[in-house]
Design brief:
elongated; about 675 residues; Rossmann fold
Length: about 675
Amino acid sequence: MIYGYESQWKGPESLTVTITNIAHSFVTRLIAQREHSGKRPMIFVAHCFGGIVLIKAMNILKDKHSDVLKAVAGLVFFGTPFRGVNGAMSNGQLVERARQQDGQEVRPEILNVLKEDDGYLQDILQQFINLSRAGAWSPVICCYTEMKPASVWRIVDDRHAAKEIVVKESSARLDIADIWHALPHDHFSMNKFVDCTDQNYLEVAGAILTIARGCTKRKSSWMPQTTATTSRPHIAPAPSPIPARSSGSEIGSMSLSEPRRPSSPRRPSVFAWHIEQTIPRFTMDNSVQKIDLKCKKAGVKSAFACGVSSDARRVFCLDEEKLAIYTIDAIGRGSVLCSSPPKPPRWKYHSAKMTASFLVATYTSLERSYCRVFRVPEKPDASPECFRCELDEETSADSQFQCVALHQSSSFVLVALAEHGVTGAASASRIHLYKIFPYATYQPTQHEVIPLDEVQDEDDGESSAPQALHGRAKFLTFSPDGSFLFCCTGVYKQIANSLTVWQITHDLNRFVAQFVCDKIHRYTKERSVLGITSAACWQSASTHPYMFVTTSPSSQRKYNKGEWSFIAPIGQPLPTNKDDAMHCLYKAQHVQYNSIMCSAIASSGNAIAFISQTGKVCVAPLLALTKGGIGTPDGLPMELERSLRTLERPEEADLRFSEDDGRLIAVDTKGKLLIAHFGGR
C-alpha cells in the first residue's frame, strides 16, 4: 500500500491542510485495505512530514481500531521532524520568499506546525510516546537522520542560496527508537537509492528485514494455514541454506553455532553453476600508468606492507615507524601528497587496512599490542592532528594482535581483530569484532568475541576424530557488503591452512556471527609454499555470494587435495581438488601463475585480477564457459605491460577495482603504483 496526500502550500493550487485531516484520511484508506488481510502484520515507512501523519494515525487507531494498531509491527522514519524543522522552513523566511514571488497565494498552516517546539506537534508526539510505552503495543521503531545540508530554497525556485540541515538529529531521533542511524545524504535524497546494491539501501533493507523476520516467528497467529509454499522477500544476498545446529555456544551476545558440513550431493563443475547470466564483457586497455610514490621521501624507509582503500581512492605503505597515505587523484595531477596518522614514539606498526573514510592500524611494543581506528581526513596532505581516533584497544601482556579487517557502512564501521597468545604453541586464538557508530556518538561501540579453537576440521579419512585448530590467523577480510567475514588460520607446526567463513547478521541491538563453511587445506612442505594467500567475495547477477580464494601451492599441486586456487559459492562445501574447483588458470595452462599472492574481483562479477609471486598483474574475464569466459581462448588471463616487485609475502602488494571510473589500482611496498583502465562495466 502506498499513500500520498496533497500538501501544496503555495501558488494558485495551494490547499488548507492539517495533520488531523490527512491522518484521518489515511486511517480510512488503511481500514478499507485491511478488510481482507486478517491480522497480517504491517510495516510503515514514512519520510519527513509523512512521519508526523503516521504517528498521528497511530494515535487515532488506539481509540477506534486497536486491533489494527496491534498489527503494526514496525515504523521506519526518514528525516521526520518530531520536534520541528530547522532554519528557513522554521523561521518564516521561506514563506516570506514565496509571498514575494509574483504575489503567490500562500497557506502556511502546514509549515507552522513544523516550527521548532510547536505546542500542537509536541502534543502529538507525547501521545505517541505514551502509547508506545504503555506496553500493549510495542512496534520496532527505526529513525534515519540526514548528514548533508540541503538547498531548501529550491522549493521557491531559488537554487543558489546556502544549504542547511533541514531536520536536525535531535529532532529526527526518538528516544524510544530501537534503531537510529545517520545516512550520508541530504533531506530530499535520503529515502532514494541507486539500486539494490546501494550500501544505504542494504542498511535500511536489513532493518526492515529484521522486523519482518520477527513477524514470521509469530506467523501462526495471523497467517492462514495452507499447504502452498509462499515466497519470502529477498532483500539481501543470502548463501545456500545452512543446516540447523543441534548445539552451540553463546559468547556474549554473539551466537556461534557448532560447525558442521552441509549434507548435500557433490555439485557440478564450476562452469555449470557460475554466472550463466548476461553480464558486461570485460575489456582492458593496453596502456598502464606507473607512478613512483617516493616512499622514502615520505619517511617510509623499509616498507613491509601496503594496501588500497576500499573505494580505490587512496593507497598506503608502512614500515615499523611510519604509515604514509597517498591520495590517488592528487597523484594523478602530478604531485605526490601524503598524510600520516599519529603514533606514540615507542610503538611499532604491525598491520593496517583502509576503507573510504577510515583506517585501522595495529601496533606492537615491548609490553603488548594495540589497535586504533582513525577517521581519515579528506585533505590529501593533512597533519597527524587531523586524524580522529574512533577506537583504541590493547591486548593483555601475554597476547598480541595478528591481523585486522575493516568494513565501512553508511552508519557504522566493522572491525575484526585476530588476537593470539604468545605464551605457548597451543595458545588459543580469538577474533574480536567491534561495531563502531562514528556518526552517532550516543550509540555505544559493540564488542563480540569468536574463539578460533571452536572451529574444527572435518574428518578427512586419515584421522579418527576432528581436530581443533589452534593456529594463528594469517588474514581477515570482510565481503564488500560486510555480510561475511573470512578468516584464514595457519595450523601450528603443520603446512595446513583453515579457511573459515562466518555470516554477519545485524540484529536490532547486536550482530551475530554464524558459521557458514570451513575447510582445511594441506600443503607439501617446501620453500616458498605460503598456502592460502587471499580471499575475495562478490555477488553474482543471481544475487548469490561467491568467493575467489588464491593459494601459493607446492610442486605437488597436481596430486594433492586443496592446493589449488578456486572459485566457489559461499555456503557450499569447498572444493577438494583441482577438478572440482575447475581452477581457471589451470584450465588455461598458465602454470607460471600457480602462486598467487593477492586478488580482487570487480563488483559486477565480470572479471578477476591477481598478482603472481613474480609481481605480474593479471586480469581474467569471469564469464561462464559457454559465454567465452574462463577456460576458453577468449578467457585467458591478460598481463599488464608493467609489473610490480617480486613478492615474498602477500602483504607486500595489493590491488582493487574502482568501477566508478573504470580503473584497476595495484601497489607494492617499493612504492610502485600501477593504474590500468578497463571497460565493459
